[in-house]
Records
---
Amino acid sequence: MGFCLPAPVTAQDLQGLQYFRLLGPLFDHLHTAGTERDRAGNRQLFYDQYATWLLLDFFNPTVTSLRGLQQTTTLAQVHARFGIRRPRGGAP
């Protein structure tokens, strides 16, 4: 019995993207949260992006792993709407 990898996430698998048009402005004030300690100025993931990423996970139960959630950020539709890049760490 071998380990079975889940199928890659596609744009057709994603749900609830229309709600982010309403939720997006609510997260605008979170963009600067926690940035006062970033003296190097090299922050790439802001709190508003992180909150959006988590909500994307809650709206899409077909994304069953952290790797699947990471794959959603590589989709052109997600990147264009949210501007979230693929988080670094782990295998590609």
Note: The chain is about 35% helix and 0% strand.
---
Amino acid sequence: MPKSKNLHLTNPLTSLSLLILLGFIWGTGYSIARFAMTNGVPPLGYSFWQSLGPALIVGFIALSRRNASTKISISRCRYYLICGLTGIVIPNTSMYFAASHLPASILAMMVNTVPIIAYPMALLFRLESFNWQRITGILFALTGLMLIILPKSSLPSPDMVPWALSTLITPVSFAVCSIYIARYRPSQSDSLSLSAGMLIFSSLLLIPLVVITHSFYVFHFPFTLPDWIIILEVILSSLGYILFFQLIKIAGPVYYSLVDTIVVLTGLFWGHLIFNENLNQWTATAVFFILFALLLVTRQQRRAALTAVRGDRVS
């Protein structure tokens, strides 16, 4: 059985800290997006600002460092283009269109099923080794998804089912992006330059979509509450993208996918606090299945990581 190529954790405590912080940031984003969508911000316009804003912030920081990792080449542009498309444009746009039609807690659960797709993809590209416990976790997560989608009394309205299904585009795209980043990350590159490049290219991809659909969102002066909400998410997203690349670099794509446990819990917390969202028997059971599935994967991942670290120390 081949060893995993991405289980070398130079500092497990650092990886865990990045995981928790990234999970909290992204889990908060679902409630922020729902608030923005239900207060007049168009999904594509919101997606554009959540790409351009972090691109300016992260790009400025990356350029200020002026190291070799900020150099531009054709191969790097191709890398930025694919990452921007699969990691921002497709998943964010899909998620923001659904945000006003689904409870924030349900949106968080549906989107954060990345381990279901990321692990099989990692197996396919030989980035991870086969393990029955992880497969069992995937089956539990699939059961949780079915409990959200199939029962008529699960979601607040049957009209939400198509929107719930459409959100699965987001985790599929995120999984593709995480595998691509881990497999094809350019040499001599840092997280800042990669984040900036991905964000810049995603902004360029979104410009024609925003123009064609007349979805550009204009800020008001003085700023309104939705304006401030967009700015808040721009700041959080900027930090999140940096953490995203750094976590994959030091811990691998499957370990990164463990962030979903924290994201789901954070999404449930803010959904209840801000929108007074409460789970019924079906969605509560679904939460249990999905969280248990993620815990199964987390437990196995932690064991594999510790084994790799101990092996490195011995060698």
Note: Residues 179 and 253 are 6 Å apart (CA to CA).
---
Amino acid sequence: MRLLAIPYYSSLLFFCSLYTPTRAQPTAKDSLITANAYSNVLQVYHQYLTPETGLYRGSEYVQYAYTLKTGHPYFDDIHMQKGSVFYAGILYENLKLFYDLIREEVVINSPYSAYDNYTITLINEQLDYFTIQNHLFINLRDTLNPSAPHRGFYEQLYKDRITLYKKEKKEILEDLSSGQVEKSIVPSVFYYLKKGSVYYAVNNKRSLLQALNDRRKEVRKFIRKNDLGIRHDKENTLMKVAAWYNGEISNMANK
């Protein structure tokens, strides 16, 4: 079953036409005014369309037909949490959603869910990024980049001169040892650094040093001096190394 998608682009174009930049070469003040104007127009647009036809497009989310012995398929929590989506070029904030890590699907409530408990799976190809609480997920589409990981949603942990991504997955494991089929969730996590236009899988110390080969000795010293370790504290270590590499940590390795 699919929701009926009502055209909405013409409405957005109408509201966006209500403001235009006034200078050929805008100053910082002009840019701020323009940004505020666009934000105000977007707010009016959201208020104008209720329910928002541009958001509620996608297929019905299919619930799991079996009971899991351990774990759940969602990111962080089994319940929907506060978040936002940048969907088909429009930002929608203050939503309730969850992220299914097995199917790699973002799910929101139908505007009529209070009556029929209907949830909607958003269309991945039209979803550029989304947030859950303070977590930001980017839809990576560097398909022509030979070093890029598989396309999909990656949590962006850090971004500056280098970018740190986290890929969390969940799979269903079937156990037949008891004579019955018991299904459990098995999670896995992978990390990637993007430096320039090149992606590096960084899941151990050796791969991290290879990714940051231009400062290999300093990286070693920074990790040792700050009692960090990929093996026992991977995510924290990677985030601190990324911040240090960008010069944000005052306790530099060469001091």
Note: The first strand starts at residue 59 and ends at 60.
